[in-house]
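Re: duplicated header lines in exported structure tokens

Our pipeline writes sequence and tokens for each protein into one text file. With two proteins the header for the second block appears twice in some exports. Here is an export where it did not happen, for reference. First protein block:
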Amino acid sequence: MLNQISYFQKELADLVYRHTHMEGYQPTQIPCLGLSRYSTAHYSSLAGPSRGLYNPSLCIVVQGSKDIILGGERLKGGPSNYIVSSIDLPIIFEAMESSPEVPNLYCKIEFTPSLILELLSAEEFKVTGKRTSKRGVNVAELDVSMLDAVVRLVRLLDKPADIPFLAPLFTKEILYKTLQGDYGDSLRRIVTDGSPTIHIRNTIQHMTNNFQNPFRIEDLADVAKMSIPSFHRHFKEVTAMSPIQFQKQLRLQEARRLILSGSMNVADASFHVGYESHTQFSREYSRTFGFPPREDVKRLKLINDASVDI
């Protein structure tokens, strides 16, 4: 079994490396599939206020490592893991061990809610996953069956004519294995009528679209169709943060992106994302990212050679 896993891991690493022609995230001819290569230590944000509704996804750490920072928690992913994301959260990824000789390689597969619902609605579908979690992102153990299916999907990049016919089949197989695996329940909840996760997902989208504006907890609870105590409990179960912490992360990550891209200076970015006090912005930025804004951006540009995906 270990020999099989090692064989598939090597083949997948070769495929991802060959089909990534530059640093960072790259879409492919397969609509649901994206590949990433990083030859230096890097930081990246999964979510951003400018994005639309996020599709659930599976990310394979093909080579290297990926630390997931969610609120105050840090989850570690490596080549023996896959990452299941069910909801758009202000997550930061870090990978500090990388080099041109042994780059970090990732493979991301997105699933539409309609495809999830299609599989769950099948009369023959039986749930076998043992572990449950209400969190919007989880790290699970990768097995040879899942790895085999992912390799077959990525192999299609070498045979573009086969993509329209086989990619949907392989994607459905990978989703089936994800739903049946550890934390598959986190994907099932986002299409289950009446599930608190659906209501929290709607609230998250509302907050993401209006992150610059102040909000009242009563209004957010109304969007979620919950009482205030129930809303607080379910929101933290899914996001690992309070609503205020969540909004703060959205604001800080968007400000960081704007500053690093050169779109705005520090003062303009802090005002744009909703801060009225530059001092408060700098203090909260330093607390979140470990460095004041200007020092942080200078450091990231040096680390990433100005190619950070953030």
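Second protein block, exported in the same file:
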Amino acid sequence: MLKGVGSALSETEMQLLLIFAGSDRERQRLAQYLAAHRVDGVLLVSVHADDPLPDLLAQLEIPAVISGRRSAEETLPSVDSDNFGGGRVAVEHLIDQGRRNVVHLAGRLDVYGAQRRVDGYREALRDAGRPVDESLIVAGDFTEEGGRRAMTELLARCPALDAVFAGSDVMAAGARQVLREAGRRIPDDVALVGYDDSAIARHMDPPLTSVRQPIEEMGRAMIDLLLDEIADRRPAVSRGLERRQLVLPSELVRRASS
């Protein structure tokens, strides 16, 4: 994403300031920095549903664009990939491979994108005439350890599982470890699909089928939207928000894990 952002900014006179705000103290310092109006605009990445920062930016009338959305009712301009379509195509692929018991290692369910991937999982099963067993959806936290925990739980719940859709490549890596420790071969016994098409997917053994997000394109689109916001500082909700909620297509990259 930074590559796309940097490429788009290179065509302007603006500079990029990268700030990480993980702790409460870091967020407080960031709020003070923003309150001093030392920035022209803000790009928000990895924002959770209860994050107060977007509302603070709105109060300060600082132009902002979000990567992803906090909910279906997002009020700020946003750029996202098609998480629903990505989840659906991943599960459709597994069903097309003849897999009968498809489980889902979901990401953090306070993240709207993770919720939409779960929705895509459910929709693919319904379209195939399969029942949706909610016990076969276990939330992780987008970490390798979270993938291990969720996979261990799913193996206990459904020993006959033969396909896993993980909400991220990192969680898929954790799931792979658990499957191998349980003596399950990939893809012979269990097909495995991840999400993000990261370097992890390409270098995993076997290489991981994964859903690719157009990350670089998303970065460029975020800058384009933000520049529009800076040029017209009226609240986005007064300017036809429908056209400012961009959703870019995702695609399945097939490899040897499925």
